[in-house]
Amino acid sequence: MNSRPLRVTVVGAGPAGIFTAAALTDQDAVPVEVHVLDRLPTPFGLVRHGVAPDHTAIRDLRKSLQRVLERDAVRFTGNVEVGSDISLAELQASTHAVVLTYGAARDRSLGIPGEQLPGSIPATDLVSWYCGHPGTDPSAVEALLSGATSAVVVGVGNVALDVVRILAKGPGELESTDMPQHVLQALAGSRLRDIHLVGRRSPARATFTTKELRELGELPGVGVRVDPRDLELDPVEAAAAEANKVAGRNLAILREWSERPRTETARTVHLHFWSRPREVLGTDRVSGLVLERTAPDGEGGVALTGEDRTIPAQLLIRSVGYRSVPLAGLPFDAGAHVVPNHRGRVVDDGVPLAGHYVAGWLKRGPSGVIGTNKMDALETVGAVLEDVPQLLGREVGHDLAQQLAERGLVTTDMRAWRRIDDHEVGLGASRGRLRTTVHDWEELLSIAGGRPDALP
Ligand SMILES: Cc1cc2nc3c(=O)[nH]c(=O)nc-3n(C[C@H](O)[C@H](O)[C@H](O)COP(=O)(O)OP(=O)(O)OC[C@H]3O[C@@H](n4cnc5c(N)ncnc54)[C@H](O)[C@@H]3O)c2cc1C
Predict the structure, then answer these.
(1) What average pLDDT does range 314-331 have in this prediction?
(2) Cβ < 6 Å from ligand 1: which residues?
(3) Comparing 6-105+324-448 with 109-320, is the CATH topology the same?
(4) What is the number of the ligand 1 atom nearest to the C-alpha of 81?
(5) Nearest to 436 by CA among 189, 131, 162
(6) What number is the average pLDDT over the span 441-447?
(7) Is the pTM of this model over 0.90?
(8) Domain segments of the chain: what residues?
């Protein structure tokens, strides 16, 4: 085997990108140099800016991800956006292979009237806000939250449950998270009393997992209400619940909640199934959501019934999925919102595009847990390693790090990340917390000591 190292650039330092770097450097048949880029000054993707702050054990996964980025053969450069700071074609010119793992950060829309009214936001905005994503404007979310006593979250996946739980929790329970201080304050001042979760289909089709669902019913001072009528299933839905263990367990929890005696609580979470959002009401901002009752169509889908009702709400959070965006020079499936690929090799009209690979949510869409990206990255790295003879046969230009430095870009590296990490831990300690996330982009760069040359 050739001793010249295979240079691989990974675009995106989320789980998929880091698992790609791990798989490339776990093997020793092919010497490799891996350069992981991210548009943010910090690594870890949705592990830092998506996973709910109160799920501390999962957020702690970043420690093992960090160890990968600290390997000798791996280099991390943050604050570099591929597509604007450097093009894919330029990356290709300086590297044997590019693995694209830039995720699926955009929301999908409901496609109903009134959806764009102030007060209606995608879950991505709320999640980014409470996780301290530096691309968010905190004041916009905080203004909406401060005026709301009732919120509706549309969607029945784990992200929707995260959002409901974070909005329902009291400040005492959030203190132990790493949320930015201003987020903690805004949530402490929230006047929300009712939080509604809305799903179009049967409860047997909800995609949330049981552990996350159960958590909702265990929050101090929070009542949970489910209409028993929503839990009546026709034979097709009952069979679906029977066939899917998670759905069966979820239904058992929902049934128990539907039978709980109603008591007065500071906040109440209402779960609604068989309810299709039809229209967002409001003139200058959201005032309610019209829901149309659905019914089983006997084939696992739903039929409309024409029976409408309105939930008054000043805040509407749409959690109906994520999608990827195209990148110049990269084939894109605009229907499925993924990069067309065969086992991780990017394909254009079915033909592999030499030197281009994809992993993670950009490859398979926004599904699965963090660990799913590990197997996914392994498959992609398998394809890269099979292609080594062809990849090394191409001459590549000068070092990417040097190229970035020559552009005068302010970048970050792992030393910079450690400075941010130490700073956040210190900031937390000064307030009796374990960590306080810094959300401001410029502040992150200044803590990082970001400078035109990030070469170690
Ligand atoms: C709100 C939310 C909560 C979740 N909670 C959990 C959970 O509790 N447990 C669990 O197992 N899974 C959870 N997941 C799923 C998990 O986060 C994903 O499976 C995983 O993050 C996908 O990895 P990825 O690397 O494909 O994408 P991402 O994690 O999104 O990483 C993509 C990276 O690419 C970077 N990037 C984007 N564009 C560019 C560009 N042009 N140039 C350079 N870099 C770029 C981004 O900044 C980001 O760092 C959650 C997901 C969401 C959305």
Answers:
(1) 95
(2) 11-17, 37-40, 45-46, 50-51, 55, 58, 81-83, 101-103, 105, 127, 159, 162, 322, 360-361, 368-370, 373
(3) no
(4) 42
(5) 131
(6) 95
(7) yes
(8) 6-105+324-448, 109-320
